[in-house]
Amino acid sequence: ETLSGGVAEADPFTGKLLELYEQIYCTEGAGEFAKSADRFGVLRSDYMLHNNNELKQVELNTIASSFAGLASQVAQMHGHLVERYIGEEKDIREWLEVNKRAVMGGDASDDSSKDGVPVSPALTCIPAGMSVVHDRYVSRYCSSSDGSLSPVILFVVQEGETNTVDQRMLEIALWEKHKIPVVRMSLTAGYTKLATDAKTGALSILLDDGSSREVSLVYFRAGYAPTDYPGENGEEWKTREKIELSRATKCPSMGYHLAGAKKVQQALARPGKLERFFSEDEQSLVPGLRSTFAGLYSLGADACEGDKAAVKDAISGQEGNYVLKPQREGGGYNYYGEGLCAKLKENVSGDMELSKELAEFILMERLFPPQQRACLLRAGKVEGFGDSISELGCFGTVVSSESGEIVHNEYAGFLLRTKFSNVDEGGVASGFATLSSPYLCR
Amino acid sequence: ETLSGGVAEADPFTGKLLELYEQIYCTEGAGEFAKSADRFGVLRSDYMLHNNNELKQVELNTIASSFAGLASQVAQMHGHLVERYIGEEKDIREWLEVNKRAVMGGDASDDSSKDGVPVSPALTCIPAGMSVVHDRYVSRYCSSSDGSLSPVILFVVQEGETNTVDQRMLEIALWEKHKIPVVRMSLTAGYTKLATDAKTGALSILLDDGSSREVSLVYFRAGYAPTDYPGENGEEWKTREKIELSRATKCPSMGYHLAGAKKVQQALARPGKLERFFSEDEQSLVPGLRSTFAGLYSLGADACEGDKAAVKDAISGQEGNYVLKPQREGGGYNYYGEGLCAKLKENVSGDMELSKELAEFILMERLFPPQQRACLLRAGKVEGFGDSISELGCFGTVVSSESGEIVHNEYAGFLLRTKFSNVDEGGVASGFATLSSPYLCR
Predict the structure, then answer these.
(1) Residue B249 sits in the same domain as residue B291
(2) How many Cα atoms occupy the beta-carbon half-sphere of B197 within 13 Å?
(3) Residue B429: its pLDDT value, please?
(4) Are residue A200 and residue A329 in the same domain, yes or no?
(5) Are residues B91 and B204 in the same domain?
(6) Which class of enzymes does this protein belong to (chains A, B) (predicted)?
(7) Which residues of A touch B171 (CB under 8 A)?
């Protein structure tokens, strides 16, 4: 409901997803296999420091969150370098001390003996979550006596994907630790090579040697952007639908995918909304959780007085304190400063009437992370030294049964992305930001 | 004694080493600290298959044996690929079966369920051996109460070394598993940055920040070739001598270094020689060990009738069954076929009189390993398909006390190098051979 109406109209991609979701999950008698499947999320909640040492959520990613594997390796390297050289290199100690003060100010303890780079368990925890889903599928659907090969996990990837190493790390861990085979395929190739059995709902994949294997889990590392659906006749959308209709677990299911929309993030921040996801015993956790939310304002039909006040503030000289964000995943489409001010002014009329075009956006309080010294590398060479800002991503895995019972819910590692403060654009794959590691202090 | 005379005269590099060795270790009252140090070998014994399934020793490397780290990773990769795909890819099964038959012929079992790529423990075992040496040094010489930083292990490397990743793997494992810091330096830089305390024999290294650290173990990944000693005034030789005279353990000590000479290998193969290294209880092991030796013939003053008969054979049309090998480490200087025949003929006169120039060589039975199918890669791309031959290297670590007591003696992993059979030259770093992995069958 949050997404129907304004967002779906203004953003055709989200609209298409929502339409399929409603057809499959909200229509009596339809989507029997999809409804019966487990739900599985590999989620990444992104945070920035704000007002020095406060963590504020930037967004929640529910599809194709990347860099879990590479970031684990980077943290291992940084942990090694700090631990190995902090004793004998005065420069490193000073460098870390300056950054500690920049974040913690007077709260920083002089005792740094417990400070350090944490270990990210992502390459253990994410495959472990996948194996929970796979094992549940096997015990539910696969008879061990019929001699057929075990099902595979399907990684849906982009054609010409360049971030393959990060994905291969998960694939290799799945085999080495859980003996679960992985097959990679694009949505385009899946159009001819994937089939969902009409009787059982089993999803099967045609391999290169002509044999076919059942799929227990479909892990999407593609499918989050319109460019992942290039087919003139909607081939990729048909593949997506075919997958969704199967009994295989989808990571994410369309519902989980839609839950990552900025609009949902904004709606969850409304007073009273978070409470319904916690039991009576857990209500005391809500204020702490809500304190990690930045100011989030609707620009849709449901915009309240508070939302409009924020818009007014933003077009009255305070544009620097806001970000205008579209629903679309993948970054790089945000409005800041003058651009934000102009975009809002174009779409506000009369007594703070907001045009329909704004419905696909949310307005968010801009975060001001403390600047820290950094030396950034590109392709093994020093790119430069300067002030930087960072964004922390925290992975988690969650599995729920068809009845909605949570059967697995675990923290699953982190990544940190760092860029020079004078660079507006973000993104590691696009070359603006680098993978880095947190250094925890007290 | 084996090396003095012929070899030392004909090969100035070995001569120089031997001269220093005798000065330091064989002179009463000299080399007090060197003599008192533990001896440590990271050895690699190289083998080829011969007459199908017989393992014959090619040589024993006692200095700078490389690729322990990279080969472990390659074996892990090959193990993964075979285990993951052998079930579903018929081509892989056929490929391995053809090679199994090429080596084992009729001895090959039809049951391949126990076949596979072994795991190389080199990155655990070699650092573990180093830590034994380091810990013995610390408990012998370092008081824990004086507050000074722990000693470091010095890796002596070539200027402009390109095989650094392999070395860094050992360095990182030493820190991660044993918290032992490593410092890298060339013999050239060591001339000004290393000092041996005249009173205590402690070897110390000057770090970049001006501080100095004691060295427990010097691990040579350079120093085995004349090109590692370029200084016009013998700077590198002086560094080597300074290191040798210290109380730090050397890997290898000059004695261990010299023990890797081909001449020693040949002398050990003489009847009755191997026996003296085994106790009475162990004498039954000798024939099995000797059966791994190929035919080895002296061309020095000690050449016996059997040696001369081999030379005669080689210059009478059987040159294809021999290799002529110089003492020098590093490969690429061997004579085969017509070149071997010509070299021998030039230096044989009258009734099989051998000229002094031949003393630096040994004549060895040529090995004929079975040819196996291979697909070789270079820089991630397929270089070609074809028949190949392989050489197996087995690492071992050995620590002995100043009195000669063996306190540590362990197998420490393997590497396999593979090249196309039609390529005469060898060497991974030189680009002719590739790192590969054994596939054990029964």
Answers:
(1) no
(2) 13
(3) 75
(4) no
(5) yes
(6) ligase
(7) none
Residue A128: Cβ within 10 Å count: 18
Q: Is residue A196 part of a domain?
A: yes
B294 shares a domain with B217:
no
CA nearest to B182 within chain A: A84
Range of the domain at B384: 31-262+369-436
Say if residue A326 carries a ligand binding annotation.
yes
pLDDT in tens, A156-172: 999 999 889 999 999 99
In this structure, are B330 and B341 located in the same domain? Answer: yes
Nearest to B172 among A80, A181, A211 (CB): A80
**Cβ neighbours of residue A416 closer than 8 Å, sequence gap 6 or more:** A71, A390, A391, A392, A393, A435, A436, A437, A438
For residue B329, the model assigns a pLDDT of 62
Q: Which residues contact B396 (CB under 8 A, 6 or more apart)?
A: B41, B42, B43, B44, B45, B409, B410, B411, B412
Strands (E), B24-178: 39-50, 54-61, 152-156
| B241, two tokens | 């001598």
Domain of B305: which CATH number?
A: 3.30.1490.50
Residue A197 binned pLDDT confidence (cut-offs 50, 70, 90): very high
Residue A1 clears pLDDT 80, i.e. is over it: no
Q: How confident is the model over A271-312, as pLDDT tens digits?
A: 999 999 999 999 999 999 999 999 999 999 899 999 999 999
Residue positions of B annotated with a catalytic role:
44, 59, 61, 66, 262, 325, 329-330, 417
Place of tokens 């001449």: B263
For residue B232, tell me if it sits in a domain.
yes
Is position A25 within any domain?
no
How far is the alpha carbon of B400 from chain A, nearest alpha carbon, in Å?
29
Please tell me which residue of chain A has the smallest CA distance to B177: A80
- Count the domains in chain B: 2
What confidence tier does A422 reach under pLDDT thresholds 50, 70, 90?
confident
Cβ contacts of B150 on chain A, cutoff 8 Å: none
Phi, psi of A272 (to 5 degrees): 85, -10
* Helix intervals (H) in A109-261: 122-141, 164-178, 187-193, 235-245, 254-259
Among A301-305, A360-364, B435-439, top mean pLDDT goes to B435-439
Q: Which of B84, B149, B211 lies closest to A181 in CB terms?
A: B84
Cβ distance A211 to B88 less than 8 Å, yes or no, reads yes
Active site residues of A: 44, 59, 61, 66, 262, 325, 329-330, 417
Q: Is the pLDDT of residue B330 over 60?
A: no
Smallest CA–CA separation between A181 and chain B, in Å?
Answer: 7
- Chain B residues in contact with A210 (beta carbon < 8 A): none
Same domain, A288 and A256: no
Rounded Cα distance between A62 and A437, Å, is 22
- Please check whether residues A355 and A379 belong to one and the same domain: no
ipTM value, please give it: 0.87
Judged by average pLDDT, the poorest of A44-48, A306-310, B87-91 is B87-91
- Same domain for B166 and B97, yes or no, is yes
Give the helix ranges, DSSP H, for B86-221.
90-104, 122-141, 164-178, 187-193
Which one of A84, A87, A149 has the shortest CB-CB distance to B87? Answer: A149
Q: Which of B323, B341, B365 is the last residue of a domain?
A: B365
- Is A209 within 8 Å of B88 when comparing Cβ atoms? yes
Going by pLDDT thresholds of 50, 70 and 90, the confidence category of residue B145 is low
Residue A350: per-residue pLDDT? 83
> What amino acid occupies position A144?
S
CB contact under 8 A, A209 and B90: yes
Helix, strand, coil percentages (3-state) for chain A, rounded to 5, are: 40, 25, 35
Last residue of a domain, one of B309, B337, B365: B365
Q: How far is B170 from chain A (nearest CA, A)?
A: 13
What does the mean pLDDT of chain A come to? 93
Q: How many Å lie between the alpha carbon of B179 and the closest alpha carbon of chain A?
A: 8
**Are A88 and B176 in contact (CB < 8 Å)?**
no
CB pairs under 8 A between A and B: 30
Q: Locate tokens 């495959």: which residue?
A: A127
